[in-house]
Amino acid sequence: MVVDGASGRHSLGGGVVLVSPQGVTIEQAVTFHFPVTNNQAEYEAVIAGLRLAKELEIQDVEVFTDSMVVASQIRGEFEAREPTLARYLSKVRTIIGGFRSFSIQHVPREESMAADRLAKFGPRGGGTLTELFRPAIEEGEVMEVNRRSSWVDPLVTFLTTGELSEEVKDAKSFRHKAAHYLMLEGSLHRKMLSGLLARCVTEEEVPRILEEVHSGECGSHSGGRTLEARVIRQGYFWRTLRKDTAEFARRCQKCQVHAPLQLLPAQRLRSITASWPFAIWGMDLVGPFPPASGQRRFLLVMIDYFSKWLEIKPLAKVTSQVIRNFVWGEIICRHGLPQAIVTDNGPQFASEEFINFCTQLGIDLRFASVHHPRSNGQVEAANKVIVNLLKKKGSWVEQLPSVLWALRTTPNTATGETPFKLSHGCEAVLPVKFEVRSPRVAAAAEGSEAWRLENEEGLRLSLDMVEELREVAAIRQEEIKRRMARYFDKHIRVKQFAEGDLVLKKVDAAGRSAAVGKLNPSWEGPYIVEKALVNGGYYLQDAEGRTSSHTWNGDDLKRFYPPAAQAPILLAGPKARLWGKGWLLRYFVLSHFYDTPSSARPQVDPLRRLPSSWQV
């Protein structure tokens, strides 16, 4: 935290710049409406910054100021002989006692320019404005005289005086309800059917009770129904007990980030449909394999979504240039320019070089959602078959052509035909037909002119009928996709998010599952949904305002609920969003929030709004 105070003819104020370990910055300008000296202005700025840190529940503070006098007095190196500065020093030390750790250092003016700008120019220099009308050392204690009315007041009045309050509308119903309550040692209690006497608590006491029972020293972070039963067994009751316990358990931060992973799909099955051969290709990398000749360890696999025709190439290095050359030589020059290529978010595919290559040729390069292989399921299924066959064959590079030939000449369940026939219009001649001669091979071996003419006529007829063959295959594929969708959609758990929603993301969705320990959170975030796509993909934005370059699927997201005791505020600035009060600061400013004991956290009034000077 960098602070600075200014006491001059044209500037009378202080500046506070609070920086979190993650680099999130909060700026606050303070204007003094009373005369101060330079040292007093520095003290006022320090006190304003400490109060800001205290309200944000920060436990560890390191202050930087360009005032040697103030820094030395707070560290105890200089004595504050001037009475006013002595009172300021006493005030600062009182506030410091509420922090877990505190330090203050003197820095050159050049390193506190941001705070100096706020102190001299106020809100014109950036940040938000707080106005002070009297010195911090003259503030007195404020006692709460009035208390908000509570649901227990009419019952207490009736049981103690026998009179009905003005807010009671139905006297008969109220008397029937009051029969379940009694006054004991000056407190209202409810007679529970289990035989317990539960003390009735007010709305102000509810947050503290829920936090202690749910996540206190003996808390087990239980669900809503269990939390409700535990509260009653502890001897407490209020009229919205069931609703409040369920809401509190749902909004608990630790319960949300450590919740079990959701395995059911979040939306209906959406299939990729190709209307003609070699229009849409799926592309993926497989490996690493055991090193072969030329240090080849990877396979680049591409499959046509219509005919299931495969193109495979073993690679030693996987670079954007290699991918580009393969697509040009093996796909475009052999099968024509494709309409689209579907791939994952690998750096070789998402590189600027490959994206520009596809853009120049008019190829629609489609990226699957991060950590969601089902988005490119055709090539993922082919990968599994290829790896399984290579395991049985042995030496994978030498056996790769035979594996590729086998897959091209095997009838596919979805189309009912072989990829070779859908591509070339006729079936391939396999070596087995020469070992065990078929009538077709025997006739070809004789080489008669009549057979040659008949064979040419048959080939032309096959080519004439290939259009119908492909139409039948397309209809068959669509029917199989419908059957798969009907089965798939029986097991979905619909999750839909709108722009501006807060979500958590699976930790292993970013490919970090190997580094995640047993006690680490299963979810990370929260993030804000920047853009929602119709296919179930979402662009996310983090606390720094950075939007993800690739989409995340709804299967890997779940809704985040800000703490229930935090009222919504609107953050100022170009990234203004509706967030829960203080939740952004808790997660992104306070890196140690989860380590703060519940007993050390100040009470939060559910109805109190965050002051406008603290909007960031």
Automatic annotation (TrEMBL):
GO biological processes: DNA integration
InterPro entries, per database record: Integrase_cat-core, Integrase_H2C2, RNaseH-like_sf, RNaseH_domain, RNaseH_sf
Residues of the Integrase catalytic domain: 273-439
Record-level Gene Ontology MF annotations: nucleic acid binding; RNA-DNA hybrid ribonuclease activity
Alphabetized Pfam families for the sequence: Integrase_H2C2, rve, RVT_3
Domain RNase H type-1: 1-124
Domain of life: Eukaryota
Name of the protein in its database record: Uncharacterized protein
